[in-house]
Backbone:
């Protein structure tokens, strides 16, 4: 059973991949796989951040509209 990917899990995995590549502990045979996975994780994190930003902005606008006297 696969666990749901979260921002935190994706970030941790990205850090691990980056460290493996930087320390050259990734064999050439799996390097393309690691880079592809890193690309997927970066895309996931960017999407999550944009979604969260939009949600927070919406909440702030709702709060501000309730505090404006008529």
Residues:
């Amino acid at each position: 059973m696969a666990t749901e990917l979260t921002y935190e899990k994706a970030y941790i995995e990205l850090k691990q991949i980056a460290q493996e590549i930087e320390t050259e502990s990734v064999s050439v045979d799996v390097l393309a796989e690691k880079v592809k996975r890193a690309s997927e994780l970066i895309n996931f994190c960017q999407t999550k951040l944009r979604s969260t930003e939009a949600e927070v902005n919406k909440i702030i606008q709702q709060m501000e509209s309730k505090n404006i006297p008529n």
Observations:
- DSSP finds two helices and no strands in the chain.
- The radius of gyration is 19 Å.
- The chain has a mean pLDDT of 91.
- The CA atoms of residues 43 and 57 lie 21 Å apart.
